[in-house]
Amino acid sequence: MNIKKTSFPRIVIVGGGFAGVALAKKLSKQDLQVVLLDKNNYHTFQPLLYQVSTGGLEPDSIAYPIRKILKDFPNFHFRLADVEEIDPIKNKVITNIGKLKFDYLVVASGSETNYFGNTNIEKYSMAMKTIPQSLNLRSLILENFEDALLTSDLNERNALMNFVIVGGGPTGVELAGALAEIKKGILPKDYPDLDTRLAQIHVVQSGDNILKGMSAKASQKAEDFLEKLGVNVWKNVRVVNYDGKTVTTNTDITFETATLIWAAGVKGANIKGLDAEKFITRGNRLLVNEFNQVREFNHIFAIGDVACMTSEEYPNGLPMMAQPAIQQGDQLGDNMLRLIEERPMKPFVYTDKGTMATIGRNKAVVDLKRFKFQGVFAWYVWMFVHLFFLIGFRNRMVVFVNWVYNYVRFDREARLIIRPFKRR
Ligand SMILES: Cc1cc2nc3c(=O)[nH]c(=O)nc-3n(C[C@H](O)[C@H](O)[C@H](O)COP(=O)(O)OP(=O)(O)OC[C@H]3O[C@@H](n4cnc5c(N)ncnc54)[C@H](O)[C@@H]3O)c2cc1C
Predict the structure, then answer these.
(1) For the chain, which terminal residue's Cβ has fewer other Cβ atoms within 10 angstroms, N or C?
(2) Residue 422 — pLDDT band, cuts 50, 70, 90?
(3) Distance from the CA of 270 to the center of ligand 1, in angstroms?
């Protein structure tokens, strides 16, 4: 990998997401050699992926070069590498570009879509976990309307204009709201020859409520907002199969659609070598102690989505969200210094700063510890928080200008089929 061993301890971090970047920023200032490995050369701001899928933002505005984030630190090294295996005994990682020894290893590889073993759904549905997947979805949505315009078969036309989103969490809700706004504001102008009123957006949720991690008020308000936008919300319905045409559920409800979007779950993106049953727990996550150490090891850590740290308050582990990832990365930076200097480490305590979701223009729900609010003010708060956490001044400016433009013009100009979607 062309990284010379120095007298400093070498810390290898796998993954440049929220957790890995927070940790690297903290450690790179110290007398340590920090090596960050990621299969992409950019950090992805996943909370805004749905805006890329729906033509609201260009992909470049939610991605940021990892090298640039840490360019000022001479002890920091980045390598574009897919980590294929971890050897925790010989202390090395095996990647597609070679092997690398470590003194300390931090797994921050995030999560991946969980299809719960349903191979048909995995094969035919669309996921939205990465920028390429979001671009695929953007292309497919637009291609569907181009095809709907050409077909004279009414059933086929309806299926092309039907969108079924599985999962009523923030991702499903935000995507449904954005699609509903496209249906209302963009499609009639772009496709005057097509009766776009027939386009249907469905959110299918297996439980009693959407946004189930949020307050009952937020959940109800989000449902009201979606209904106002014309989205069909199906609760207590579980999708069981999809053959590329028909979605079947555990009830007698079925949907004919060319687009099933799977936003119903994620699991830890664990890596071979640490995947034995003794290391993993619920959702394929690495079981860690209060210092983020992986069971049996003092020198191997996991942070962010891939780590499962349980406590009385969070018996199933911390939520798979950006805040726990950032806070763990930040705190582990301090703890690793303590460990190296043979001082006692401090247990991690998660500070819940709140949860929010936007449903559309002037429509959002925000749950903070003390205050819960919905509507226009919540929407401004949502926008401010997302701009604040985006990495890079340029990205913040581009996103802000895009949002103002889209708001004033009722538009989404990135509705481009740059790379046509080809089904596997
Ligand atoms: C569509 C969507 C919307 C979301 N919205 C919100 C939201 O509104 N609020 C919120 O708090 N959270 C949200 N989340 C969740 C949040 O994005 C994650 O919890 C957060 O990204 C976790 O950070 P992480 O550092 O653990 O992992 P990630 O940010 O996923 O980073 C993992 C990194 O590891 C790399 N990697 C993985 N495997 C390997 C390997 N084998 N070799 C090399 N590199 C590897 C990946 O390329 C990636 O860069 C959303 C997620 C999605 C998908």
Answers:
(1) C
(2) confident
(3) 13
